[in-house]
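Render this sequence as a predicted structure.
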Amino acid sequence: MDKVYSDASSALAGLVKDGMTIMAGGFGLCGIPEALIEAIRDSGAKDLTFISNNAGVDGVGLGRLLETRQIRKMISSYVGENKLFAQQYLSGELELEFNPQGTLAERIRAGGAGIPAFYTKTGVGTLIAEGKEVREFNGEKYVMETGLFADISIVHAWKGDTEGNLVYRKTARNFNPMMATASRMTVAEVEHLVPAGEIDPDCIHTPGIFVKRMVHLPNPAKHIEQRTTRKRAEAAVPAGAGEEV
């Protein structure tokens, strides 16, 4: 089966429907499947639930879908960079299921591994544990968290081959690999597409069996959430420089 599609819209054709649950990889703005997010926006699908570490920023990433009011619910860990998200949440337009970051990562990993639930100490005695089962193991209390599984996962990889084997680069490995395993259909955008067999098997992060569709997107935009710079230091002048000899 040919997994490579000509563009992001074609790769998602026939998949995106109202009311779906979608996992979107990336960490901040690093490793986000931006072209696939844009294609979801263009599809017009609404009442979507997104599982993502964060909600992008205003005008970038999932922020684009907040602009069009296509997201009904976010299952996230960090949403502090998005003013539009805050406005919609505080006005009651947007539902939020907040998770500690490690718990979110493990819920996704568990979903991909077929584990329906697990216990963690994180959140015991806080708002996180309200309404959830709490059990005691070896004298310590643990709260039960359920695994997460989506209809579609959209991920961004640095390199992929035509069989769907993927390699992520640095920070993009935080959520993309586990999300690729935790849905009925994974669609990947890759910066560098190579023939099958060119990637060393020991270097593959996501085996191609998890990836059903791909789109080649060379030279994607690399956004920076908060650009911080420092004043360039003035060059030191050696003693005696400029003096007549």
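Summary. Residues 164 and 208 are 4 Å apart (CA to CA). The mean pLDDT is 92.
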